[in-house]
Amino acid sequence: AGEEVVQIRLGDKCYPVCKRKLIEQSDYFRALYRSGMREAGQGQEEQLLRGGLSALGLELVLDFINTSCLARLEQEEGGEEEPPLLEELVEAASYLQVTPLLRLLLSQVRLGNCFELHRLAQVYGLQDLHDACLDFMAAHYHQVLRRPDARPHLLLPPALQQQLRERRMRGTATLVLLGDFMGACPPGLPAGCHPAGDAPWAMLRYDEEAQRWLPLANNLPADLVSVRGYGSATLDNYLFIVGGYRITSQEISAAHCYNPCLNEWSQLASMNQKRSNFKLLAVSGKLYAIGGQSLSNVECYNPENDWWNFVASMPNPLAEFSACECKGKIYVIGGYTARGRNMSILQYCPTSDSWTNLELCDVHVRKQQMLSVEETIYLVGGCILDLGPSHRSSPSEDVLTVQSYNIATKEWLYLNENSSKSGLNLTCTLHNDGVYILSRNITLSSSLEQRLFLKYNIFTDTWETLGRFPAFGQNILICSMYLPDGRKV
User: Fold this and answer.
1) Which of 28, 150, 241, 327 is most open to solvent, judged by the fewest CB atoms within 10 Å of its CB?
2) CATH among 3.40.630.30, 3.30.2290.10, 2.120.10.80, 3.20.20.370 for 206-428
3) What are the backbone angles phi and psi of residue 281, rounded to the nearest 5°?
């Protein structure tokens, strides 16, 4: 026996549809046929629809009911017709309560339709679709910022941008390593235990409960293997690797970023200036590439347009300096000018695009790492020379020190030192309640004193040894990122 067919009438048009499929897919029609209402009586082969539905919306929904797919929508994807089609579709699917179709839309969110689907989800109270759109836009946040429809139609207001940034950080704050790890397994450990596996250039993540490093498999670009002296920064939970030089000594301007929400790398617009041994900082939603080998110029990267442009240059080129962001401004300390030691603290204000010589200091530092928390800048490691009247000691490259500078009070504090550790060749990051410090180069010939994996607690001013790092490697970078929960490795 053939399937019973019902005629759906809308205005002067009739649409034949299988009654069984109609009841299976539409809560509206299921309730209608089970209610005992006159419209659903025996022998009633025609159903009249009212409520202002459009013919196009009804056709799209009935196509889905008959085929269980959105073929027409997929054909139109990327075209000019997509937003109108979506509006008609969602309106009809909501009115007729076609839950399987609304559920299918959760997997149809794309860069081209995420704004429109987000708006429609709000209009029709579709919470699951609303959340799916937010998840998609958060995972592709910088790509979403670049959409031409993001600004003219005000579809991405500041409040929504902030919501998406927060959504990108819903996972677990995790220490992540990027480096050129050697294939040799450390002595005393079983073969095949090397955390980087077969890939010499890899990423690792730290399991704090197990206190061990695990592989973080992804599509890390092979051409980053030979790059040294690059700039790195995290912005909106993206990791940026920019510039540097290849082992052949050729400086580069290329830029890449890692998106932990998608666990993938992508290439970005290159800087205008090739540079290495510079500082890359995230400030107020933008990146700043500061200085470099014999360079004083500064470039700013805006993720909204994936482009770099020059801003105000530093007063002089600097070597072996460091810099960090603090309270929306950039602070540069230490290093050398062409004429000698740089004793000035330089401040850059992005709003006015200007540099200020903030003050002179008695301590000269070079090759240090810098981080900030609230109004305090922490200087980690480096080679320190106290030139003040009550100078403390001669410079030592073998002592790991932590100093702080308060930008409000301009007060320096010599916080702590670890006399058994070297203050050079470090990579460090802020993570939870402390500064995590790791040797940038870890070799077979390193002594136990030189091989670092430490935590400095900024609240208690104490050191904690986190044990020996179980891999050998070069050019290592440590950073803290939010990885999605349940990440498989």
Assistant:
1) 327
2) 2.120.10.80
3) -130, 145
